[in-house]
Design goal:
single chain; alpha+beta; eight-stranded mixed sheet; five-stranded antiparallel sheet; 17 helices
Length: 473
């Protein structure tokens, strides 16, 4: 029987008797066993790192734990074992892995469990990016093949630079089961009779991208996509349909004329009965929407092959990004990554053009792992943080352990972390992470079974030297 999720979570001990859920949990155990076996087969050793640690800027909010023995001071639960695993490399343990619990005080998201999640955490010494790929690709491919129930799994993963992923797929975690690749068709609209696009293109940073839609050349489908775009907060979605005889149809085709329409069709390789949708403006602002439109077209026209696992590396992430809110340059991914070009690049290049030795693994539209080659040179570490607005003293205060360790000589090292929960979710064929976890919290980050979070007693607060200051109702 179907029950509301809150009732299911409150009586989780009964809910777990459901055959499907029971099966998912057993599959999860087998997947983790397989990961361990494959990592050990590659010569890695499992280490356990501390759970009570110091606060660190991994990108999310820390869960803080007040110290009774040191009044007014706090431990933090680890957002990831990042610093510890790097310190292990300095200590001469060359190949580390751990099925690590990670804790982040984030607002709930559909693709991450609130509060805590598990990752296959990996680090290796004396390696380049290529060495990490060579060690990890067979592990992840092997796990997928073992539990794919006969569905095909990518052999020989593609490597897609971050900028190319945004341009072709409108996403840094593209679903490659969908064959659609977007193209820049600005030239065909420059100075054309379609004034809206022509005027936009007078600004050199603006572009027009085409989203090909094989078999989408019907007025009903094009109108449906246009309404969908309006529902996403866009003014609409321009389109051209190609009818029998290869004539372009629709308002855009009428405005730009048959020659330009034919040139667009030739560039993106479409035939009679196909359509193309167009997104225009500053690509930095519209790439996300164009990616959603690409997914929608693939879904609606059944172009996306649901019966496979498509794995790929996304590489060459930017080291920095511009933070509009604080009007400053910020780290875009992981602050501990090595910039491509090393210290020289940090000194001489515009920070926003520096790429990092940083990479993600994507599968079917999900990011399932993230990693990088680490910045192990003390001067380069200080310089990298300086660009993001941290002084040397602040680096020493916040990452004292790592900074000191680097002074004693650090091997070139790198690694990655793969999301165990997401991998299990994909292999169990569900889109809900709560279907593959034993005792998950609900969407409001509450544990309905145990009644957490709960209020502390006056005695507990007194022992911790804490006074509660609640917001005004």
């Amino acid at each position: 029987q179907e029950y509301p999720e809150d009732i299911r979570l409150k009586y989780r001990f009964l809910d777990l008797r459901r055959e499907k859920l029971h099966q998912n949990i057993m599959t999860r155990i087998e997947i983790i066993k397989s990961m361990r076996r494959r990592m050990e087969g590659q010569g890695f050793f499992e280490f356990n790192t501390p759970i009570l640690t110091a606060s660190s800027p991994e990108g999310a909010r820390d869960f803080l734990v007040p110290s009774r023995i040191h009044p007014g001071k706090f431990y933090a639960l680890p957002q990831a074992p990042q610093q510890y695993k790097q310190l292990l490399m300095m200590s001469g343990f060359d190949r580390y892995f751990q099925i690590a619990p990670c804790f982040r005080d984030e607002d709930p998201r559909a693709d991450r469990l609130p509060g805590e999640f598990y990752q296959l955490d990996v680090e290796m010494s004396f390696v380049t990016q290529e060495d990490v790929f060579a060690a990890m690709e067979p592990v992840i491919t092997g796990v997928f093949e073992e539990f794919a129930k006969g569905k095909p799994v990518t052999k020989g993963w593609r490597r897609i630079p971050f900028a190319e992923a945004l341009r072709k797929y409108g996403s840094d975690k593209p679903d490659l089961r969908n064959p659609i690749e977007m193209q820049d068709v600005s030239e065909h609209f420059r100075g054309s009779g379609f004034k809206v696009f022509a005027r936009m293109l007078e600004d050199p940073k603006n572009q027009v991208w085409a989203i090909p839609a094989t078999g989408g050349g019907s007025r009903a489908f094009c109108d449906r996509m246009n309404s969908w775009a309006q529902g996403e907060g866009q003014p609409g979605l321009g389109y051209i349909m190609w009818r029998e005889g290869g004539e372009g149809a629709g308002p855009l085709a009428n405005n730009i004329g048959p020659e330009r329409t034919a040139a667009i069709r030739a560039q993106i390789g479409l035939k009679e009965g196909d359509a193309a949708f167009f997104v225009a403006g500053d690509p930095d602002k519209f790439w996300k929407f164009s990616g959603l439109a690409r997914n929608k077209v693939g879904e609606e026209l059944n172009l996306t092959d649901k019966e496979r696992f498509e794995l790929a590396w996304i590489v060459d992430f930017p080291m920095y990004e511009y933070n509009e809110e604080d009007k400053k340059v910020d780290f875009s991914h992981n602050p501990f990554s090595m910039p491509q070009g090393g210290l020289e690049a940090l000194k001489s290049q515009d920070p926003l053009t520096i790429k990092a030795f940083q990479y993600d693994i994507t599968c079917n539209g999900y990011e399932i792992a993230s990693g990088g080659i680490r910045n192990h040179v003390p001067e380069a570490m200080v310089k990298a943080f300086e660009i993001a607005g941290y002084g040397e003293q602040e680096v020493v205060d916040r990452f004292g352990g790592m900074y000191r360790a680097f002074q004693y000589g650090a091997p070139p090292h790198g690694g990655m972390a793969a999301g165990v929960d997401r991998i299990v979710m994909l292999l169990c064929g569900t889109t809900n992470l709560r279907e593959i976890s034993l005792f998950p919290m609900n969407q409001q980050a509450m544990d309905l079974l145990m009644g957490a979070p709960s209020e502390a007693t006056t005695k507990q607060l007194r022992e911790l030297h804490i006074r509660v200051n609640l917001p005004q109702k």
